[in-house]
Design a protein that fits this description.
The chain is built from 8 helices and no strands. The protein has helices at residues 15-55, 69-74, 83-90, 94-105, 110-113, 116-133, 137-141, 156-173. It is elongated, with a radius of gyration of 22 Å.
């Protein structure tokens, strides 16, 4: 390798060194895209669930359309806190999330239920990657030991499959 900037001399000794570094960088890019995708999906779910419950608060007690949520909002008649319901739909395992969604909205979401395995893998990968950025406090107490985080494998093809799945779920919910 010929480097114009002398500070990079010796960075890559072989084509294999360069290739390994490039592949690791690509994996981080894909994983960061996955974290962004899942975080935005959770924000979407949280927003749409809260909006639904605000506009039709009777949904929570199985009496949909019995209370005009827009009237309550417009005239500030009652403030209803839906955070417990929203949190149950965006935190925890996907099985618990779908159970909460179906209980609240009294309907099924086959697109989610049929993809629980993929959504759970997606959730776990996202959590592991996010935690790799902010190592636990306990890990930082021993500054003498530096542990390199083992990256989960992520390909652009798998990332695209996750994007398509999330898009289909959003499309179904909308």
């Amino acid at each position: 390798f010929n480097y114009k900037d002398h500070t990079h001399v010796g960075t890559f000794k072989t084509l294999g060194d360069w290739s390994n570094t490039h592949n690791e960088f690509s994996t981080w890019v894909y994983l960061n895209a996955l974290v962004s995708l899942t975080s935005n999906f959770e924000i979407y779910l949280s927003s749409i669930i809260k909006l639904s419950l605000d506009s039709d608060p009777g949904t929570i007690i199985g009496a949909s359309k019995s209370v005009d949520g827009i009237f309550l909002k417009k005239y500030k008649k009652h403030k209803i806190d839906h955070s417990e319901y929203v949190t149950g739909c965006v935190k925890g395992t996907w099985l618990s999330r779908i159970n909460n969604l179906e209980k609240i909205f009294n309907t099924t979401f086959p697109i989610i239920r049929n993809n629980l395995r993929h959504l759970e893998r997606l959730r776990n990968t996202r959590n592991n990657v996010a935690h790799a950025f902010g190592h636990s406090i306990k890990d930082t107490e021993n500054y003498e030991i530096v542990n390199k985080y083992a990256l989960p494998r992520m390909t652009v093809e798998r990332l695209i499959k996750y994007q398509i799945l999330i898009f289909k779920i959003v499309e179904t919910i909308d």
